[in-house]
Specification:
homodimer, alpha/beta, Aldehyde Dehydrogenase, Chain A, domain 1, Aldehyde Dehydrogenase, Chain A, domain 2, four-stranded parallel β-sheet, 43% helix
Chain lengths: 418, 418
């Protein structure tokens, strides 16, 4: 079968499966998730055997150590995939819930009911656990899912997909509700992105290159997350101890992730007092600082920041530092160089906190806490399928609810329009 | 200036204006809306003079009578534009509102705050009143708007835009927050659809051809509404008098609009009893019926429906009629031929009503009332900018809230990730 007919057939079957999933009770969906978890644990050795094929092929192809590391399925990976599924089974099912219900003057009762989106396409790289994590969330929200992982992980993804399908079948749910695209060709992505009659949403997960490719080529709506250039602004009314803790945590706790701080903005009035001890903490943790001109006056030994540093997402122990005139300049800097991901202020001033919240245009705006809290789990969404930095449909971490939409339900007793 | 540089400049200015609009108080926005209304009334004769230029050009170009009718700005059009703006000023401002607020175990307080989307591009045909209606809604929701109306309405749209800009300026709001694209070239649309760095959302309003063109060519997310192939299913447990009233209203009240019924589905058990009087009412109102084979047995004088009738959006006094075995067949028919717009059931059976609500995949699902209620005003959204039949971001009538999104607001007292 050609690549095109393979993909078209999969998408058509996914659409049919989605219609069945949409009618499925929460109990059945949870049962399926728990069965998938069980099956993955039971098949641990087969999964690792398939993964070993990917790993040896990857080594032959000269994948970097970091790539090989991400590709590896260990016992702990198996355990965390299974636990993840059991946690998703515990989460509230958004489908069928109604928010506010209101009554019209003519007696019509109107509400909005949460319903699944339909078919979700996930396009991702390397990590095979995404296959299971993403499928779990999509299925729980009543959707069907088409998974196109990295070609280097194909053996691993296929055996994980077969665990999922078997568990679905065993539960009496449509086995085609979760499918892995069984093709290495990049052309498969292109064709997948054109199935707008069958697929309702595309979520790319991976590097900026992959995401831009998907956005450029998709005829289907895309929820995307380019990068996290996150800022902390240390106000002149900040508790400087708190600011030091927050900034240290935001940079050092896990520098390689999107919600790590990349630029620290400091009010000029507290710059001297704050920056000297802060720089010491950072340097003792191996953080390389790159400062603006004013910062250099206070910390003459650090590197000078260039224009490229302000929009940089280092994902590393590197931090750009800028001294600002006031909060307005901090907010303008965020608007100019940020990525609408996460921005935090440290301040004890009530009205500045209020204004920062209103005026900063980011998916998560934080007062007096670390940027590291921009995470579905940390914010109480349960689990997340990604973080959207564009505004339509979802802005910020996306949990189960963001994998659904709403329809209007109108109850009458014979009302007509006059 | 080239078409491209004109559009790029407008989009860049719109983006800057959107940032100012986002910070704007509800009071200021309402003041601007009321000033726009006033200015349109004050300038009625100039508006009609500009409109006359469009009309005479349109007649020279041989526009149909229906097109000329839609293009004409009458005193009543002026009045309804001004009243529409005053009504939008009365509506609650969604911006800044927070839904549920929750607390995390570590004490972080999390909420979602409504914020404007940014810059909205509206691409529409003929009716100049859309310029004012759409601008009013976009501005009230704190957005900037770029309006690209039909080339045949350019003079009318430009004078309306200048009324809007002058009123914005007079209120101290950015005058570039509402701009009409001053170009007749179709190429302008193509370029507009590529300004994904500045424009956040495109809403096309018009015929299916325009909408498909926009969807095919846009790099910006599109909220679209292709067509309304709406169904009423008359169940065997229906109150047949109520069913007759509802079906008559759904078809005859305003046959040329998207929420009019296009196909009536009738349970076989009540077909005979229901169809004979129903057909009489329809025929006395000039409705042409096209029936399935079973319908023909009951109403031998009517035309036979062909396969093309089931997915047809007549927008006219024509109705397809089909007798079905049961509700399941009705729901399958809707799924196969419908457009996810509006479907209604007439029934007195509680569990069938419940199942219909759950299983029918339409933006508005109605029990015992006319399909004509799928309308932002009728459902209590205040006013609508359109009806979305795709699921992402909004599904169904879109009011002010659908012109906004949410960001997360997190309040802490120094929390860091452990």
């Amino acid at each position: 079968m050609s690549i095109e007919s393979t993909i078209v057939k999969m998408a058509t079957e996914a659409k049919a499966a989605a219609k069945k999933m949409a009618k499925c009770s929460t109990e059945k969906k949870n049962e399926a998730l728990i069965k998938i978890a069980h099956r993955i644990e039971q098949n641990a050795s087969e999964i690792k055997k398939e993964n070993a094929k990917d790993l040896s092929r990857g080594k032959e192809m000269g994948l970097s150590d970091a790539m090989i590391e991400r590709l590896t399925v260990k016992d702990s990976t198996i355990k965390s995939m299974a636990e993840g599924l059991r946690e998703v089974a515990q989460l509230d099912d958004p489908v069928g819930s109604m928010g506010r219900t209101w009554q019209r003057p003519n007696g019509l009762q109107v509400s909005k009911m949460r319903i699944p989106l339909g078919v979700i396409g996930i396009i991702y790289e390397s990590r095979p656990n995404v296959t299971v994590d993403a499928a779990g969330l999509c299925l729980k929200a009543g959707n069907a899912v088409m998974l196109r992982g990295g070609s280097e992980a194909l053996h691993s993804n296929q055996i994980l997909a077969s665990c999922i399908s078997q568990a679905l079948q065993e539960t009496g749910l449509p086995e085609r509700a979760a499918q892995v695209v069984p093709l290495r060709d990049r052309e498969a992505i292109n064709i997948l992105l054109k199935q707008e009659e069958s697929i309702d949403l595309i979520i790319p997960r991976g590097g900026e290159g992959l995401i831009r490719f998907v956005v450029e080529n998709s005829k289907i709506p895309v929820l995307k997350h380019y990068k996290g250039v996150c800022h902390v602004y240390v106000d002149d009314d900040a508790d400087l101890n708190m600011a030091e803790n927050i900034c240290f945590n935001a940079k050092v706790h896990r520098p390689g992730v999107c919600n790590a701080m990349e630029t620290m903005l400091v009010h000029k009035k507290v710059a001297k007092k704050f920056l000297s001890p802060m720089a010491k903490s950072f340097e003792s943790a191996g953080v390389q600082l790159r400062g603006c001109q004013e910062t250099s006056k206070i910390l003459p030994h650090i590197a000078k920041a260039s224009e490229e540093d302000w929009p940089a997402e280092y994902l590393d122990l590197i931090l750009a530092v800028k001294v600002v005139e006031d909060m307005d300049q901090a907010i303008s800097h965020m608007a100019m160089y940020g990525s609408c991901h996460t921005e935090a202020i440290v301040t004890s001033d009530y009205s500045k906190a209020r204004r920062f919240i209103r005026e900063v245009d980011s998916s998560v705006v934080i007062v007096n806490a670390s940027t590291r809290f921009n995470d579905g789990g940390q914010l109480g969404l349960g689990a997340e399928i990604g973080i959207s930095t564009s505004k339509l449909h979802a802005f910020g971490p996306m949990g189960l609810e963001e994998l659904t939409t709403t329809k209007f339900v109108v109850l009458g007793e014979g009302q007509i329009r006059e």
